[in-house]
Design goal:
By secondary structure, this protein is mainly alpha-helical. The protein has one domain. About 100% of the residues lie in helices and about 0% in strands. The protein has one helix at about 1-120.
Length: about 120
């Protein structure tokens, strides 16, 4: 009977030790599950951030190409306006030369007229 009691005590001690290990393992498992849940939540947050940043990048790239197109359009308009300004300047120079020529002719005609008038008198 003594051997039986000793065996029973040993079995109880082993059961208590196993129960303690099981409780420790359950606590560790709960901690690991909590850590996994936290990391999954962090991963989801990062995935959402990636999606949002990809969208922002796409908008920025589209905005950049729109800006480049607008800049090109403005450059073309500026070139056209510069050509028109040069053409107007040339026209102005030609008209100024013509005005000068006409003024010279006017002065000559006035002088001729004075000469004729002076002859008549």
């Amino acid at each position: 009977m003594e051997a039986f009691k000793k065996k029973l005590e040993t079995t109880r001690a082993e059961a208590d030790a196993a129960l303690t290990r099981a409780e420790t393992a359950e606590r560790d498992l709960a901690a690991v599950k909590a850590e996994v849940a936290a990391k999954e939540e962090a991963a989801l947050e990062l995935q959402d951030k990636i999606t949002r940043l990809e969208g922002e990048l796409e908008v920025a790239e589209n905005g950049d190409s729109d800006s480049k197109a607008k800049v090109r359009e403005l450059e073309l308009k500026a070139e056209e306006l510069e050509r028109r300004a040069r053409a107007l300047e040339q026209d102005n120079n030609a008209l100024e030369a013509k005005v000068s020529e006409m003024e010279e002719k006017h002065i000559k005609v006035q002088e001729d007229l004075r000469g004729i008038m002076d002859m008549d008198v």
